[in-house]
Every structure is written in C-alpha cells, then in structure tokens.
Description:
Helices cover about 30% and strands about 30% of the residues. It has a 7-stranded parallel β-sheet with strand order 3-2-1-4-5-6-17, sandwiched between helices. Strands 10-11-12-7-13-14 form a 6-stranded mixed β-sheet. The protein has helices at about 15-25, 55-60, 75-85, 95-105, 125-135, 165-175, 215-220, 235-245, 255-265, 305-325, 340-345, and strands at about 5-10, 30-35, 45-50, 65-70, 90, 115, 140-150, 175-180, 185, 195-200, 200-205, 225-230, 270-280, 285-295, 300, 305, 330-335, 360. The radius of gyration is 20 Å and the shape is globular.
Amino acid sequence: MIRQIDKIAVLGLGKVGHLVAHLLKKTGFRVTGVDQSNSHIHSFTTQAVDIADQEALAALLSAHDAVVSCLPYHFNISVAQCAAVNKKHYFDLTEDVATTKKIQALSVNSSSVMAPQCGLAPGFISIVGADLARKFTKIRSIKLRVGALPRHPTGLLGYAFNWSPEGVVNEYLNDCEVIEDGVRKWVSPLEWLETIVIDGVQLEAFTTSGGLGTMCDTFEGKVENLDYKSIRYPGHAKLMNFFLHELLMREDRANAGKIMVHAKPPVSEDIVYIHASVEGWINGEVSRDEFVRSFDPVEIDGERRRTIAWTTACSACAVIELVCTGRLPKSGFIKQEDIKLEDFLSTHNGRLYAKLPHGGALG
C-alpha cells in the first residue's frame, strides 16, 4: 500500500508539539519540527520559520506532504488555508469551534485532508463516544467528560495549568453547543454542575466549550441529549465563576490566563480522567454503556511525559497514521467520531492508550 504521507511538518515545539514530532519520527515519518527558534537539540530536523510570513509558510509546506499545527488556535486558519491551497494534508489540536467551522469550509472540494480537533477533547473522546453509540438502536443520551488535573491538588482551585491557558479561558467563556431533548442549542459554560466519582475520587463536571467537536453535526436527529463537560475537583466551577464573572476578568482574557498560570503553574504529576457514557435501547431494552479511565504520566524513550502531553500527542499521531495507511479518506474533512475506536487503538501510537500502571514505561 502506498503511504499517503511521508514528510510532515510539525508547527510549534512546545511540550505537546515536541512529543508529536518525536512520536511521528519514531513511527517512520520524515519530520521537520518548526518553531520561531530552533536552538534546542531534537531527535528530528528543525527549522526556524515565522508562521505569520505566508510566503515562508508556503515554501515550508511545499517540501512536505502534511502539516500538524500544535500552535495556539488563532494561528490555525491561516495555516489551514495555506495547506489547502498547496494541497497538503492538515491536522491540528484545536478546541475552538469557530476555527473548526472555517477549516471545515476549506475542505469542500479539497484534494487533501482537513482534520482539525485531533487531540484528547475534542478528539479521542469523540471517537470513544461514537464507538459506544454504535451499539444502540435508539440513543437517549451521550455524555462525554474529560479532565486533566494535578494528581495531588493544592489550594481551593485544585488545578494546575498543564494545558494552554488561552485554550482553558476560551473553554470557560465561550458558549457550549449541546443537544437537549432533541433540540440543538447553545448553553453557558461553567454550568450544569454534576458530581462524578472515578476510582473512588469525587469530582465535579460542568459545561465547557469545544469538547464535542462536530458531534452535534453527526448526532442531530439521532440522540435526545448530547453534551460535553470538563472534570475538575469539587469547588472549582464556583471559584472560576467568581474570578471570570464577578471580578469581570472575562473582559480581559489574556490577563486572566496570565494570572491563573502565575498562581497555578504546571505540575509534573498530572492525571487525565475520561468518563464517557451512552444510554438508550438495545434490542428493545434500555441499557447503559460506559468507558471510564484514568491515565498517568509515562516514560517514553527514557523521558517522563506529562499525561496531558502524551494523551494529546498520541491521539493526533494515531489519526495521522490512519490517513497515511489509507484507513481514513485521503481528502476532505475528517470528523473524529467517524474514526473507529478499534482502528485507532491498532495504530502504533493509539495503542499507547492501553491502560498502563502508574509510572509505566513505553519504549
């Protein structure tokens, strides 16, 4: 079988982007890691490029078959436009709804793949939710919950910014798309508070923006209730509502992110919780199926990787593998929920989602 992708550019070499590039190289791709500075030593080729320079970006893409954007979401539209014009496959990790809709529009009549939202949520959680839903003849509800948290929380917030502060603030302030009683609608973030218990740990979950990806497009008319919520330790939502709304920090998103990162910097011991459930009817009987997991940091090639980094990076790399080997379409827009969980887990990188003991090592 002819590989659809050989040479791939990875834009943004932060903790996730660096791992994406490393894993793709290890999987057999010829990788160029791209950042404004290439002063660090990496296991893959690097190049310093100003992504805002469209001519430089086009020249970079002309030498590659595909591009993965691990940049902040506001860069992604221009990168996707350049990829579409130059007929290069495009992948990203964005949770931003408006950005995804614009990229989806670019995919119309495209001769290359447009695949945004290839991370953990949206991304893997949509694959899991759709896999559970396929077993049902009639669906009452699909509930998707994900949380990336410090394993040993401190303070009232019980949080650490191991993920992009820009992305988190976006999720906490932008409206959330849901399907409620068969009606597709938008609801406020930081609402619909519920209690969840995973591995004996009591947690809370509340609405946040973007985690459903394109699930409402896919399941409108097929499900009575569909929603996504972020998982946090109890009390988090109340405090974030106070910070963002009562103190009016929603009016200054950039500084809101800076304040929170300064107060709650990243931690090395993080944990990712996934809780997906589907209720409905199978052979005329009401039933419920669940996918509930907790993941820890792992060692990859001698380096310990934070949980949010490896779960996000492995998800993106697995989707790229599926496109490369022809198990996904070679052109057009790819919805994460159209990817079969069995296919995802069979890839070199998707297999890393197999449950591992705390501190497990991956070669």
